[in-house]
Each structure stands twice: as structure tokens, then as C-alpha cells.
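README, section 4: Worked example with a bound small molecule

Sections 1 through 3 covered apo chains. Here we extend the same pipeline to holo records, where the ligand is supplied as SMILES alongside the sequence. The molecule in this example is zinc ion. Nothing else about the input changes; the structure line simply encodes the ligand pose together with the chain.
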Amino acid sequence: MKKTAGIVIALALDLGCGVALAQDSHIEVSQLADRLYLLSTDQGSYTTNTIAFVGEDGILLVDTQSEDDAEELKRAVDAFGRGTPKYIVNTHRHVEHVGGNAAFGDAPIVIAHALVPAKLRSGSYLFDEFPDETFPDITLADSLTLYFNGERIRILALPGSHDDNEIIVHFTESKVVHLSSLVNGFNFPSVDADGDVLRFAELVAKAIELLPEDVVIVSGHNDTGTWHDLQSYHDMLVQTTEIVASGLAEGKELAALQAENVLGEWESYAGSYVSVDEWIEYLVDALQAAEEPKRTVYEPLYYVWNDRGADAALAHYFELQREHPEEYQWDDFTLLVIGNKLLANDHIQDAVKFLDASLEEYPESPYNYYANYKLAEAYYRLNDRERAARYCEKSLELNPEFAAAIALLEELGKM
Ligand SMILES: [Zn+2]
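The generated complex, written as C-alpha cells:
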């Protein structure tokens, strides 16, 4: 059962809610150390963190936000007055960490884990069609030391928890580290299908061992913390795993563990990504060694779409569903994810086809507020303001608080 992981991934990573309408800057800049700055974007229910290291040699960035926030990030980086970054280090391949690479052109030397190039051309990422500038120039599977701005920067691969390609970046003199998504802003971790819930404790323990006690910890998302926070986070991982494992050993099932609120003591780790109940579910799934996740349909659909267009790709989707129901994973967000990515890459008519199909096939999906909103955005870009307004209204019927739909409706002069 990988449902939770799928939803978290789809919403948090693939459906980043940024929309290219008039918006005030939402990058917050704060100082972490003498020459180190935290550039944080507010994504609504969570933040995404970039580090800028600024000195006499120029700028090094750790992570570059999503493509939607790239122009703003670029403006914030330009404001340091040190030109285009010399280096970009991507802590893992997810779109909120690599999406802004291309905005800086091909001058920066991009450093990432050795698995990142292949990952950016597989699965749902095929539909992102990342330009060459997004891809790393240097990859590592172990460690790398960089001397820049007079400082020794340790870059270490610690893959296998949130995803399978995380690297951490330690500024040894400034005493700041970016721990990728090993810590999720000191909330319960989120886990990709290629990650492993049960490896967090071991990898966090490794990070604790590698780092000095007075280090400032930046994570991919949300709050920064201390070495002692990292220790508590590690203890939480170990203890919550033990409690859920012993519940399962007593013959309890997921629903019972949730109803008994067996992890209530760790409520303070609940965040917008992962609630207490979801963390219990992650642990139950992992401890019961749920079967390998099934293949997704992104790759077969991408190649059909690329060769023969959206209608053929959608026909292929239904054909696979009819003829190979057991081989692939079927869910209520794949068509939406594809529609969203096609729209982001200006394949507007094709996006409309996928979004329409998503609404038609999955009328009960909890993501339909988002599908309706994306249709509104598509029609807005096609200059069909009437239809755009109607889809905005449908989106707001399903999710009255949805800020992006409210903003678009205002833009359309309907609010
Ligand atoms: Zn991630």
C-alpha cells in the first residue's frame, strides 16, 4: 500500500502550487552565518529552502527552488551583486530543489548525486522535459570537497531515506549544513517511492556523527534547527518505529494503532506533509514489507505522447488499464500530474485533454479542485476568460480557500 507516499509526492513535489500570475515576492532572505544566507519561499503550507554562500570568489547555491519560483530566486541572487552563481549544488532530484537551475543559464557548475541525470529523464519527470542546464556537470556517489570563498565545503552522499539520491552540504567554517530531506524541517519525514522509511534513523545517525555540535541545520523544507534537535529527531525515529513495530507484533492493525493514537507523544512533529496518522501508516507499510510498488504509466505514456500526441497517449492509458490492470499502478492523480506538467511546458491544448480526462475518469478525486484550477489556468492562457472563470468557480466550490484560484478569479475581474 503506497497510497500515502503517492499522495505526498503528487501534492508536494509534482503539483507545486505556484502560478505565474502577478504575485508579490515571497522569497524571504535571512542570514545564517557571516557569508551564508537562507532564501526561503512560502509554498502555502510549507517552505522550501535555498542556501546562498556569498564571498570574494562569487556565489554558491544549494538548491534552486521550483521552476515557478526561479525568476524570483534569480532576482534575489542578483541582489547580492556577485553575478551568476559559480556553483549550484542540488541536494536531490525533486523539482523543488532543481527547478531553478536553468534560470541561471549554463555558466554555473552543477553538482548532484550520480543517480540524478538518469532520474531527471525517467518516470513522471519525462514530462518535465528539463533543459540541459538543469543537469549536473559533476556527480558524486560518495564525497567531494570543494574549496570556495576560502572555506572547505564537504559534500557527502547520504542517499536512501527520503529518496535514493540525497547529498548533504557542510560549510565547515561557517558551521552550517544543508541536510537535504533527511530532516523535513524537523517534522515527520516524507518519503518518495524510491526512498525507505526504515533507513532514516541510520542515516540521521550518520549525519549526527559527521557534524559538530554547534552546527546550524538547514533542511530542504521548513524550519532550521540545532544538532540537539537532530538528536531528538533521531530518537523520535527510533522510538516511533519501535512502538509501531510492537503494536504490529501484538496483532494490531493500522486503524487500531491510529485510533489508539500510539504516537500521540510526538504530535509536535506533525506537519503539513505528514500527520501523526500518516506517519503511523508509513511505518506500518514499511514494517509489513508491503509488496514492491507497481510500475507507473508515466514512461509508456510519455513516449506515445511524444510520437503521436495527446489523444493517442490517452487512448494508450485506457488500453493499459483494460489489458494490464495488474501490472501498473492506477490512481486518481497520474492524469492530473501529466496535465500539470504539459501546461508548465506550454503544451496547453494537450494539457486540457489530460485534465479533462482526469476529471471525467475520477469524479470523486480529492484533487479535482486542483484539476479545475489548472483548466482555468489553461483557458486563461488561451484567452478564453469566460471558461477560465467558470473553472475557477468550480475549483472554489470544491476548495473555497484555494488561494491560487481566488487570485486568478480576481485577475479575471470576477471577484
Ligand atoms: Zn524531495
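What to look for in the output: Residues 93 and 303 are 21 Å apart (CA to CA). The mean pLDDT is 92.

Section 5 describes how to batch many such records.
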